Structure formats: structure tokens, C-alpha cells
């Protein structure tokens, strides 16, 4: 039943994206027909297609991330299910209800985080890339004394959408390596990352 509801949500999201894209194309067409172009702060004419290109770049990046997540998540479930359960038993959850977070939960959380960050700039696309190994190391040294780390705190350190994407992949890879687990205390509450090993 939950899978059906998740698919409905995904279909609604895709429909919303299609409507937004169609509206953007119509707005671009109308702007192209206006004889007087708009100018940016530097006095250069603004190409109305630039906004659409930005949206397509962001969609392409997020699509690649979710595809990678889905592949790795299925690989983890099929090949390491027993080991995953054994590792999970080592997490101290006494007195606290913890709900295991699934791929759809993670995707929704990171999508909301990306929506709060401005669009990807030309400078951001050409800056020095963020290394996945560096982000994984940063996550592993960010836990408190109890071996927990909140998603909100982790994402507050991200400066742009590219860093959020790398953080997303780092979280998934650490789950695959059985170094962390992700839980949620209550429905709609912040996610918690639990460390399964010290380093």
C-alpha cells in the first residue's frame, strides 16, 4: 500500500514538473516576441531561455542522483540484507521509537533541501568539484558523543546544490558500506544518522 502511495506522489510530482515546463516554454515564447529585451545588472540582454536551461541542468543532476540511489539501494537490499539486519541490531534504540528511513524518504528530504538553495550559477558549474570521499570523511567525523548526527545539522553546512547532491551520494554510500543507518524519531521529524563504527 505504501509503495502505491509513493508512486502516486511521484506521478503527481512528474505531472507538476511537466506543467511547470510547459508554462516556462510559453513564457519564453511570449518574451521572445517582445521587441524590447530585458537587461541584467551588467547591461547585457537577458536570454529568456537561460532560466529553462538552468532548470534542465538541475533536473538532470537530480535525476542522475536518484537513479544512482535506486541502483545502489537495490544492490544493498539484494546482496547484504542479512548483514544489514545484524548491523542494525547494534544500534542502541532503548526507550526511543525509530522508524527506518527508505529511499523515497531520503529523496523527498534532499529534494526539499535543494529547493531552499538558489539555482545553480555558471560559477558553481565551473568551480572545483567536491570529492565524494572528502564528504564521507566529513560526515564520519561530525557525529556527537552518542554516535548520532541530524540531517538538518549536516545540510546546514552545504553551500550550494552541488554540495547537497554529493552529500546525498555520500550518505547512500556510507549506508551501503554499513557504516551508518538513517532513522526518524517520529513522522515528519528530522532524520537521524546513526554511526555503526567509529571511523
Bin the helical content. 55-70%
Please tally the helical runs, counting DSSP H or I stretches of 4 or more residues: 8
What is the string of SSEs from the N terminus onward?
A: HHHEHHHEHHEE
Task: Tell me, briefly, the overall form.
Answer: elongated
Major sheet attributes: 4 strands, antiparallel
**Total beta strand runs:** 4
Q: Kindly name the structural category.
A: alpha+beta
What low-confidence regions span 5 or more consecutive residues with pLDDT below 50?
1-12, 79-98
Give your account of this protein's structure.
The chain has 199 residues and is α+β, with helices and mostly antiparallel strands. The chain has two domains: 1-47, no CATH class; 49-195, no CATH class. Helix content is 60%, strand content 8%. The protein contains eight helices and four strands, in the order H-H-H-E-H-H-H-E-H-H-E-E. It has helices spanning 2-33, 49-79, 81-88, 103-115, 122-126, 132-140, 151-155, 161-176, and strands spanning 99-100, 148-150, 180-184, 191-195. Strands 1-3-4-2 form a four-stranded antiparallel sheet. Helix 4 runs antiparallel to helix 8 (161-176) and helix 6 packs across helix 8. The longest helix is centred in the N-terminal third of the chain and has 32 residues, at 2-33. The radius of gyration is 20 Å and the shape is elongated.
Amino acid at each position: 500500500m505504501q509503495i502505491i502511495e509513493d508512486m502516486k506522489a511521484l506521478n503527481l510530482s512528474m505531472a507538476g514538473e511537466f506543467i511547470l515546463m510547459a508554462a516556462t516554454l510559453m513564457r519564453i515564447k511570449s518574451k521572445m516576441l517582445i521587441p524590447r529585451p530585458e537587461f541584467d545588472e551588467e547591461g547585457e540582454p537577458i536570454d529568456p531561455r537561460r532560466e529553462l536551461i538552468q532548470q534542465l541542468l538541475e533536473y538532470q543532476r537530480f535525476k542522475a542522483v536518484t537513479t544512482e540511489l535506486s541502483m545502489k539501494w537495490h544492490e544493498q537490499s539484494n546482496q547484504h540484507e542479512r548483514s544489514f539486519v545484524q548491523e542494525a541490531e547494534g544500534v542502541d534504540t532503548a526507550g526511543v521509537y525509530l522508524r527506518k528511513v527508505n529511499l523515497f524518504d531520503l529523496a523527498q528530504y534532499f529534494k526539499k533541501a535543494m529547493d531552499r538553495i538558489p539555482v545553480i550559477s555558471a560559477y558553481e558549474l565551473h568551480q572545483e568539484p567536491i570529492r565524494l570521499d572528502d564528504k564521507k570523511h566529513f560526515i564520519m567525523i561530525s557525529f556527537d558523543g552518542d554516535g548520532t548526527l541530524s540531517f538538518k545539522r549536516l545540510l546546514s553546512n552545504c553551500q550550494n546544490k552541488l554540495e547537497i547532491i554529493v552529500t546525498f551520494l555520500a550518505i547512500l554510500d556510507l549506508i551501503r558500506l554499513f557504516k551508518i543507518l538513517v532513522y526518524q524519531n517520529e513522522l515528519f521529524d528530522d532524520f537521524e544518522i546513526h554511526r555503526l563504527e567509529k571511523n
